Amino acid sequence: MLIGEVAQRSGVSARMLRHYDSLGLVRPTGRTGAGYREYSSEDIRRIFHIESLRSLGLSLRDVKRALDDPGFAPSELVDDLIRQTRERIAGETELLTRLRRIDAAEPASWEDVLQVVALLQALGSKSAGKRQSAAMSSVEEVPVPVEALVEAVLNETDPNVAGALRWALAQSGDDGLALLAEGLGSPVAEVRKRAVQSIAEIPNGEVTALLLDALANPDVVVRRYAALALGARGVADAVPTLIDMVVEGANDVDAADALSALASRPALADQIATGLIDRLTHGTAESSARRRLTQALADIPGATTSRALADLSHDEDPGVALTAVYILGIRDAR
């Protein structure tokens, strides 16, 4: 079979067949009387073998070794091809993500494209200062796609940069909420924490529903941040978790402040006082926890609190009794 017919049947161009010949990959078995290359059925079979191995990503040099060296083991080469392919896919995926983010910024000119690219690169910089500057610029100069901001804030370890990124996200409205909600289910504890912190700073009504869901999150840190944010929003559902925080000594001052703010609503004051008193009476015997609960009663108005403090002023724990006496003195002086 002549080279033209082989090219037609195999799909390999005549030029490539000549290249294979020059490399010694597949040499035609014979020649016609006029000197043209003539391929046998065995030659054609080898061509198909070459194309099959090339489809796996093998170089022509490796293809030749695979076909001609009986001792050439495929396992090591295949493992290397798997590694190379994964790296290539990762690189292509990263490029696709970058292109999508540039497209989402809706650039009007190539100057806009270059600015977005520069900001995206700055967000991934090793310099905390550059990352922070990029976060600020994403609001003040060139808008960066919210997806990039969410990814950056969920992975940010520097507290100052994280604060700037949360601020930038808050300025973008609720576009990032769905992505941040996914962050609450991350297997990485720090990512879950950053997600709930970011959600808490977005001034949007839909945030409340997300934070209420977060109160039932298996991660206690997520529950605590959600409770503090809900308390600041005046949501009564946060009360039990806030009281738990006082008992456990976890951000207990912030939790007590949130309870105090909630107690400014008369309908909630007695509920909060009753919850604190119940934990004092039945919930814990630990002295430090009882003192924290007593201190938390200080800014809870109402007769229920006053009666409880009067009882606590005679508590068998001197620390609790002295704290109650001190608080009563302040309340009487008001």
From TrEMBL:
InterPro entries assigned: ARM-like, ARM-type_fold, DNA-bd_dom_put_sf, MerR-type_HTH_dom, MerR_fam, PBS_lyase_HEAT
PROSITE patterns for this protein: HTH_MERR_1, HTH_MERR_2
Lineage: Bacteria, Bacillati, Actinomycetota, Actinomycetes, Streptosporangiales
Keywords from the named record: DNA-binding
SUPFAM superfamilies: ARM repeat (SSF48371), Putative DNA-binding domain (SSF46955)
GO function term, MF aspect, one: DNA binding
Protein name: DNA-binding transcriptional MerR regulator
Record flagged with keyword DNA-binding: yes
Organism of origin: Streptosporangium lutulentum
Pfam families for this protein: HEAT_2, MerR_1
Tagged with keyword DNA-binding: yes
Record-annotated HTH merR-type domain positions: 1-69
